[in-house]
Amino acid sequence: MMLIKERVMETLPRVPVSVGITLAGVMTALVCVATVAFQAYFPLGGGYINAGEGVIYVTALLFGPIIGGVAGGVGSMLADILLGFTQYAPAALLIKGAEGLVVGFVGYKFRLVVRRWWKPLNMAMCFGIAGLVLYMGVKYLSGLAEISGGLRPWWWSTLFVDHFEWGWWIRLDVPWWIWLIASLYIGLLILYLGSRVDASTGWSVLSILIGGLCLVAGCFLYDQLFLGVVATSTVFNVAQILLGVMIAVPVEAAMRKLTPEILVKCEREDSTGE
Questions:
Q1: Which of 15, 84, 104, 247 has the fewest CB atoms within 10 Å around its CB?
Q2: Which domains, ranges and CATH numbers included, belong to the chain?
Q3: What stretch of H or E contains 68?
């Protein structure tokens, strides 16, 4: 008996071109909205993280490398323009596009090839991601944080400094134990999903980490070679990848449960041998 996720993965590519274009457009908009709607700035470390990464990962894992790459690149570029970070827009198009492409290619195309490694991968990702979240959170993301969401076009910041045209903004002190709770949450979630819901959850997480290397390496090179500044974003890019994992893992599982018609179609195809 094939696993539910195997059936979904085999069914999703069998869609008309028009449906694929529609999916790419919708997910591009969602990447942009998620990036704009939630940003966290940590003044002590001088870095940002946002929620857009999670949508890129969900898109790539569910719909494959092409849609994942388009949504990741174009959606992130549009978000940078709307937020006033126009100097990063070209890099976002290429780097986030490559990230979505790699996550989709590794996680989507090679999932069944590594079936024998699903169980050990799930255990390794459970403890590995939990440990990384705890370490990164306590060491780099504790203390003062500025959480915001909304639009800040380039022209707005020049006319009205420190204000958003539309949005919200709060400043708070993040205690270290928040990251202990977050690490327990993601570790237990990966363990539960891998043992009870989808045995290939660990492979999804690993493919995200592999694709995340595009983000880390790409931003480092862009800062060094094109902006001429010392690259200090590596730590926060890793933190952004971990936030993306925490968002993508439960959302991906939930989306599969919300598409029963796909599973019914797979059941019919299995019974008819088509």
A1: 15
A2: 4-272 (1.10.1760.20)
A3: helix 65-83
Q: Which of 17-26, 30-39, 157-166, 200-209 is least confident?
A: 157-166
**pLDDT tens digit sequence for 83-130:** 878 888 999 999 999 999 999 999 877 777 778 888 999 999 999 999
Residue 68 identity: G
Q: Could you tell me which of 149, 179, 181, 177 has the C-alpha nearest to residue 165?
A: 149
Whole-model pTM: value is: 0.85
Angstrom distance (rounded) from CA 206 to CA 124:
9
How many C-beta atoms surround the C-beta of residue 223 within 10 A? 18
The per-residue pLDDT for range 242-254, each reduced to its tens digit, is: 999 999 999 988 7
Torsion sign (Cα): 182, 186, 188, 192: positive
Q: Cα separation of 105 and 92, whole Å?
A: 19
> Which helix H or strand E contains 171, and what residues bound it?
strand 166-174
Residue 196 to residues 21, 42, 121, 130, Cα–Cα distance (Å): 34, 37, 15, 19
Please report the pLDDT score of residue 147 as a whole number.
86
